[in-house]
């Protein structure tokens, strides 16, 4: 009986287009009056969906990694909008996912620079990393407390301000 309800709930949600980007079937079930009611169900993508995720992820990752290595940015400027548009993520999921990718990408670029050059000023890394780690911890809490719309508008304003500043900078 539960299996039939789960399949029906997932089939109904799939028809409305509620497909999760995670690739996992998930259901949030609640019991009401002896019946199991599925309030939230999502069915992971098909092979086509997984292919889209793989191709999009690789392309976005490559672009973000290249921009990050060339410009010293984490790549969120590329990843967050791409995750929202191409993978249908919410702003919060895109931001949190981008932050996790930045850890891996940053580590890779840092190891390359540390092994092949003396370009890293480790004193600055030590001091700045402490401030960044503390701010990131509290920033993640703040991000979760804001709405997706607030985050999206704040991100857009930041991109505009940074872009204008870069255009006005001299050589």
Describe it.
This protein is mainly alpha-helical and 171 residues long. The protein is built from six helices and two strands, in the order αββααααα. It has helices at residues 2-15, 47-71, 76-87, 91-116, 122-145, 148-168, and strands at 26-32, 35-42. The protein has a two-stranded antiparallel sheet. Strand 1 (26-32) and strand 2 form a beta hairpin. It is globular and about 45 Å long. The relative contact order is 0.07.
Sum this structure up briefly.
The chain is mainly α. Helices cover 71% and strands 9% of the residues. It starts with a helix and ends with a helix.
Terminal residue distance: 69 Å
Write the element-wise H/E pattern from the N-terminal end onward.
Answer: HEEHHHHH
Return the structural class: mainly alpha
Q: Could you name the ranges where pLDDT drops below 50 across 5 or more consecutive residues?
A: 1-32, 34-41
Strand percentage lies at 5-15%
- Over all CA atoms, what is the radius of gyration? 21 Å
Which strands sit side by side, in order, in the main sheet? 1-2
Beta strands, count: 2
């Amino acid at each position: 009986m539960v299996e039939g309800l789960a399949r029906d709930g997932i089939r109904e949600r799939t028809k409305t287009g509620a497909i999760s980007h995670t690739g996992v079937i998930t259901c949030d079930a609640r019991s009401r009056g002896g019946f199991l009611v599925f309030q939230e169900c999502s069915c992971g993508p098909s092979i086509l969906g997984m292919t889209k995720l793989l191709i999009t992820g690789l392309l976005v990752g490559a672009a973000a990694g290249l921009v990050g290595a060339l410009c010293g940015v984490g790549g969120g400027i590329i990843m967050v909008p791409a995750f929202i548009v191409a993978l249908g993520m919410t702003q919060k999921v895109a931001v949190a996912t981008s932050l996790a990718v930045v850890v891996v990408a940053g580590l890779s670029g840092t190891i390359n620079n540390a092994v092949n050059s003396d370009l890293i000023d480790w004193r600055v890394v030590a001091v700045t990393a402490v401030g960044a780690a503390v701010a990131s911890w509290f920033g993640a809490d703040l991000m979760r407390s804001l709405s997706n719309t607030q985050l999206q508008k704040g991100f857009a304003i930041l991109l505009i301000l940074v872009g204008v500043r870069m255009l006005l900078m001299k050589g």
